[in-house]
């Protein structure tokens, strides 16, 4: 890949030639009061069907600056994928305003396609029965990538994602992790300015997840690529993103740092401690508490907003420690707790 500064300069020149501009305050992605409503027909009785409206996205607004890496998270059915599909032009918003690099995705989908890359974790953009390299050759022609840049990008992506031994393998014979790495490479061959990743680590093993996360950090550092990542794995967010947005029931309920999300949702992390032998519950300072003991292994819950270092040091000083790990709270549990707290603080209306 070319030097990051050179690439950014080239992209700026390209934007000027294409007549596109970013937002007035430098926002690369602008979402203003966007909503998406689907009409669903449900059977009611033997011969009758009733039309019902489902509001998948409900008046959300946010901006993303060029080069930002943002996590976009929420429970299943919250509206994450619907948002991504509107940002790419696959779906047309029912209301509101949406711009990516000054382009309306639904009106100029083909024009925008040259500036974005998309990876849907459960769907592939690769040709199923062809060797992996043939998919890349087809994309070379589809995106009209200059030959020198295509060869340079391909070599770099193959190296970073460890695809060298897979190029001649039909896509249908690749494992999930191998195919996912192949999809990410395909999404970046044409030097997109923004990369949308919808569950890119779903079903991957630990090694594959680590490789994908390291790669995304490197691409962002070298190319200033804007990344919008949807995931259920909080470690993806922690290791890749500097900012997180939470959507639930189509509404944006949080936008800020991950630490702030834990504080708002009052989530808990779990320290899993393996001792040399069986002990009674370890003594830990409140609000930390032992929630489970199984032989030499103990589970200690503590507030997600608190660092684990002090707790680990205290246990290591008093007990023969063999191993430990920290488990992050489940995102759905964090959001559920967040809403419970919000409901509890809401003022009651007099009858």
Give structural notes.
This protein has 351 residues and is an alpha/beta fold. The chain folds into 2 domains: 4-261, Rossmann fold (3-Layer(aba) Sandwich), CATH 3.40.50.300; 268-328. Helices cover 36% and strands 28% of the residues. The strands form 3 sheets. It has a 6-stranded mixed beta sheet with strand order 5-6-7-3-8-9, sandwiched between helices. Helix 9 packs across helix 11 (331-345). The longest helix is centred in the middle third of the chain and has 18 residues, at 206-223. The termini are far apart. Residues 1-21 are annotated as: Disordered. This is Methionine ABC transporter ATP-binding protein.
